[in-house]
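User: Show me an example of a complex going from sequences to structure tokens.

Assistant: Sure. Here are the input components:
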Amino acid sequence: MAAIEIAGLARHYGERAALDGVSLDLDAGQTLAVLGPNGAGKSTLLRVLGTLLRPHRGTVRVLGRSLPEHAYAVRGRIGFVGHDALLYRELSGQENLLFYARLYGVGPERVRELIETVGLGPRAGDPVRTLSRGVVQRLAVCRAVLHRPELLLLDEPLAHLDPAALELVAPLIGPPTGCTRVLTSHDPARALEEADLVLALRGGRVILLDRPGILDAAGVRELYR
Amino acid sequence: MLTVLVLSAALALVFFYAPDDADQGFVQRIFYIHVPLAIVALGGFVVGAAMAVAHLRTRDPRWDMRSYVAIHLALVLAVGVLITGAIWARAAWGVWWDWNDSTLVSFLIIFLLYATYQPLRFAIEDPERQARYASVFAVVAGVFVPLNFMAVRLAQAYVHPSLGSAKNLPGSMRLTFLVSLAGIALLYATLWKYEMTSKYASAQLRALRRKLGAPDATARRSAAPALPPAAQGTV
Amino acid sequence: MSAPGPTAAGPSTASVVFALLRKELRVELRTLESVPAMSLLAVTTFVLFHFGLNRGRVDGDLAAGVLWVTLLFASMLAINRLFVADLEQGGFDGFLLAPVSRSALLLAKAAALGVYLVALELVAVPAFALLLLGPSIGGALPGLVASLALADLGIAAVGTLVAALAVRTRARDLIGPLVALPLLIPVLLSGARLSAPLLAGGGPGPLAGRWLATLALYDLVFGLIAYAVFDFLLED
């Protein structure tokens, strides 16, 4: 079953196209790596899939529902990690997660469980503004998976994480989850390792959509030129 | 063309046909400009709000353009209302500004509100969001217009009967008034159409330029709506 | 993979509004960004009026005008700040990603703004009575409380709407008050007309029903309008 079906997707920024004629299908349980230089449209694509931006043209179906009409129905099934942690600086990590847990109708025990999983125990009560970027990123991952989403949209999810933290969040957003995943990364080699499908964008257009095997290191460098 | 005819007829009637007012004499004739201006400006704001509703419902940027031009022109007329009102107040009561004239006071408030429409647009960079926010503003302000009139009117209910007197005008005055109203409404509609045409033309010109690879002139920020190429077409 | 249900049901709107409001007040208690600044501005403005008008005591029309203009300007501070934390710290996206009604945010923010206004008035009205008001405020209180309550509803609805409109503009600190103040003129007008007889020198006069009705109509109309258009300010 296809988790994501996109056909002819376009999204404008005024008279400029941020995405132009993007089409792809992704099966449930698979991982899509989105590559491309800054401004290629990677984040825009993830925000469209996350129901944060409406498609201007084309059709987008996520988890069997078309966007934007059924955005409401798919929101509770998507987990999104973006550039911003989406956490209030004055509140503690725990308060932030409890707040979002209420928005998703999730009980507090799930928050405790996640805080344990990512090894935040002693610092869960500190205001987010006092935490290091890496700890904040762990909290951001917790926030994204509070409601056990089926689809993970990960925009540079591993930024600021040291190797130990990477291991802690892997069970939440890594391949072991078995979730359908769409990810961008500052580390293309790593993204390719986990990917079943690679999409390369430039200027909002698809320049490559294929299995990761066909790309070698030189090919990847070419994509970022 | 019709606009020119009706407007000239209106002016002729105002100056040569309508009788001098018994109390206020010749200056009272500004009434034939002031009141129709006020009515058409108000109508323009309300029409702009209705177009904004259409934009929010359809997301068609052309509706935002129409709403923008409607409000923009109504704002120009509103300035005319304030100026003619001040002249009339000076002639009738000897002061440039009369707080008891509820039409004038309401127009000042409405003018102050709509004067923020352009700065609001200008302050939003993403053209799509600019259009959407401007439409929200237009709807809220459009609803505010009658409510504000009511409140200001209520504050002066015992002091100043104003527009009610237009209903029991003698025949010649009434005719002049109606022709003036029609003339100014036509003027508004014609200006609206001209400005729309010019906006479409410049949008098409920009699109062509981009196709030819000329430097992008649209990088300049603007308070005027931008049309994506797909939405360009007839008024 | 299981088939998607008809709706992935989120939590009830009431519980979401409550969670949002709780978060809002908690952040305000930690940062003290709005209420103290509003109260301080109000008291400062009374001092300014004392010198500007060269009056030790005011009553009637003048008292009503000073009080309401001060409250309105002080409320601008809260309106300017209302969505800034959400915008800068990502709370907007966090909220939009959740499977909840958009109106919950409007309700929660309007409620928070209402709480700030009441807190402001708890400081500003006694300060006004102490510093500037000629007649004793005792007899005027019931009528004044009723007028302020009705006015707060309208300010909360319009303020939340304008705050959401202004927060994503450049120069939001300018756009907010410039749009909000003209929109709030009917509130000022009704509020001042209601309280002028209450604060009159010869003891409190009666409340004018038509001004109460105007305020109520204003609250209703702008409450509905805010509800109708708020979603358009959130979605991209």
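The lines above are the inputs; the final block is the predicted structure for all three components together. The CA atoms of residues 114 and 142 of chain A lie 6 Å apart.
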